[in-house]
Amino acid sequence: MPTLSERPLLVWDFNGTLIDDVQACLDALNALLRPRGIAPLSREDYRRTFRFPVAEFYRGLGMAPTDPFDWEALAESFHMRYLFSKTIAPQPGAAEAIAAFRAAGIRQGVLSALEQGLLEIQLRQFGFAEAMDFVCGSRNYDGASKEAAARALALRDPVVLVGDTLHDAEVAHSLGWDCILCAAGHQTEERLRTAGVPVIPTLHTLPEIIFGKFGKPLASDTRL
Predict the structure, then answer these.
(1) What is the C-alpha to C-alpha distance for residues 158 and 178, in angstroms, rounded to an integer?
(2) How crowded is residue 154: how many other Cβ atoms within 10 Å of its Cβ?
(3) Bridge partner list, 162
């Protein structure tokens, strides 16, 4: 049975991992593409092409603001549409997984490219905030790399990053963390499997995988 120091720290990505916001992102993106004469994306096309940094994804679609102020305005326009979406919901199995890890005394936190204030609001909205030991978001809406923020956290091993994109696997690899990817989010399972890390269809099986690897503490051994 693992000791407290051997238990993993679960680091959650947020968008696409804890919440299903693919349709909300797609709708907001297509609302920006149409006025620019760019054909809207299907859900399948979006999941096959979405990537980080988000600016590169946008440029690949034909939106290429060169001025930082233009990019900031574009990002804010996207998020204003995103916020009014009625389609955002917790990923199936997310609440159950968080509760299982919390009951086992496993620390959890969030590492996201989402702007910090919006991240905290949505964590509270979906009932996830109380279970998190830390919440690390972005200072802007750029959707840039999370690697620098991850390094600044200075987390001790073992750490498991749970995400839904190849970028999550890249961040985990660069820091020597374990990584598990969920194929219910912003990128297809086919793409995720190129990362060489475990890929699960939903979060329902995540507790079984984590407890299978690290062991499940006895009830008397959990952190209160």
Answers:
(1) 8
(2) 7
(3) 12, 180
